[in-house]
Amino acid sequence: MKKTAFFLLTCIGVIASAYIGIGEKPVPIPPSKQRGGGNAQDGYRYLVNGDYVRGGLPLNIFRMGYISFDSSLLPRTGLNANIPYDFTAQRAANGEVIVAPNCLQCHASVFDGKLVMGLGNAGVDFTKGRGINARSLTALENLLKKKFPKQYEASAAFLQVTKTIAPDLVADVRGVNLADHLAALLVAHRDPATFRWSDSALLPKNHAVVPTDTPPWWLLKKKNAMFYNGFGRGDFGRFLMASNLLTTGDTSESRLVDEHMPDLLAYIYSLKAPVYSGSIDRPLATKGKAVFEANCSGCHGTYGKNGKYPNLLIPSEVIGTDSLLYASNYSTPQFVDWFNRSWFRQGDHPAQLVPFSGYIAPPLDGVWITAPYLHNGSVPTIEAVLDSRQRPRYWTRNFKKNDYDYKRVGWIYQEGPQAKAGWYNTDLPGYRNTGHTFGDALSDAERKAVIEYLKTL
Length: 457
Hints:
The protein is built from 17 helices and 15 strands. By secondary structure, the chain is α+β, with helices and mostly antiparallel strands. The chain has one domain (27-53, 102-131, 170-455). Keywords: Heme, Iron, Metal-binding.
């Protein structure tokens, strides 16, 4: 059996090397054992109504900041009947109603007027003056202490954590996710064994912001590891519950959240990639499939009834995309070390982080709707992914509505001669749009055909 497994892995490596360069070796990712027995419906209910983030703002304060929103995007009942889809109302231990951010802040997005569950939110704004304001939180804290002590009691932990991390949670451009940076900030203040919070940092902080584009949840069922660099190994539930670090009192609370993770994973596994909403030239897509399978499938897999995904890590010298994300695991190893000696790695379903100098070649199901592209969201269209000469250096897009480009497949964007505040600036470390130039070798006709095929996935 071991010889057979070794032979299969070797074959995968040989096949993939034909498409990424002779002599370069992708690294197969072994499967990680997951907890089974989850109920997808229960997972959905916990996702949209659960108290995995046990803290937030008092309801009346929250209402002052969220006056206009479309509650029909995610119909809910009870306390959440008139709450934005990416927040969850809950009753604190002292009876006060508080409102907390939920997972849909990052893992759901509106497209063509509908909420797409599992689609990464590419519209978040953590630029200066738009994210969390520590000064405002301190003022609110003082107000609640004096005028509404019960509300302060219910929200104190949330306010303390958010005002502590706020100064470092700032992005240079709009539309990128700071989840990796947020996690690093939180663990810097938490004891790895107990998860108890410390107002002063317990680890040296990394002030360099690492931007990412949130990958779609429906790909997870194919993956043997989590995250762009494939370093999330072991139990996926332990990673999915990481948002609990925002407000957990200690690991006794985290254990309660952990019990729901098989259900949440079952729900995530049930998600399917959205069907392309435009027209498709089927004969051209058929030609594109042949080009794709000859040039791209060695890393990204094949699709259809007998499709297979190889789960390969591609070395940095091969992929060539911005290195800040994977390199930060080596330049600031204290965060990887924290995780690997924390509660997350304990028990009968542990998780661990295994750094790698490179990135995973992801599955491409539903890739048409997941713009922008590359791990840092630096490329606005698939056309530009396949032809690096088309990639804009400085660009922005309309964040108020989905201006979708059905020809180039991705965002309609505005390009400028220089960077402006909030624009995507590919000169910045972490934001570069280099690498993945394999499509440059294709002809214009071949690239056009591949794009048409990708619409069908």
